[in-house]
Amino acid sequence: MAAIRTEAWDMLTGAMQKAAATMQRWPAYIMLALAAACAYPAVTNPPQMPGSYRALGQEPGWNLVIADGRIDYTGNYGEKRITVAAPEPRTTFNGHRYETPRLIVDVTHGRCNDVMSGHGYADTVMVIADGETYRGCGGDRRPDWDS
């Protein structure tokens, strides 16, 4: 068994040496540029949540406002309304999360386009209202992202 492992190891190292001998050498400045690009953080710090935050979604239509220490949710085209005190947001991987017994709001910083209008927004928003999940967009309006 040891002889088979040794033969396999010799074949592998021989193939690696042959590949290294025929491989093109890259100039140092290209390698340095590639290494520097890898060191730059992939996710930049998201902007701070403003004093008033708005989000909306479709099918069924809903909207949400976080302002003045409360969260106001209007769902199902105005038929369902929930108003709760806004808890301190918990920082998540790339956003914020508000949790109350009736309402959970997940804000993720990243491009979002409203499915009906195509308007671009800075955040993707998921709302769980009384156990039902809705998805939409929120934050700053981004006309440059309109689809």
| Largest sheet properties | 9 strands, antiparallel
The share of residues in helices is 10-25%
**Estimated radius of gyration:** 26 Å
Strand order of the largest sheet: 4-3-2-1-9-8-7-6-5
* Order of secondary-structure elements: HHEEEEEEEEE
Give an overview of the whole structure.
- The chain is of the alpha+beta class and 147 residues long.
- It has 2 helices and 9 strands, in the order H-H-E-E-E-E-E-E-E-E-E.
- The protein has a 9-stranded antiparallel sheet, with no helix packed on it.
- It is elongated, with a radius of gyration of 26 Å.
- The protein starts with a helix and ends in a 6-residue tail after the last strand.
Helices and strands in order, then pairings?
Blueprint: H1 2-22, H2 28-39, E1 53-57, E2 62-67, E3 70-75, E4 80-85, E5 90-92, E6 95-99, E7 103-113, E8 120-129, E9 132-141
Antiparallel strand pairs: 1-2, 1-9, 2-3, 3-4, 5-6, 6-7, 7-8, 8-9
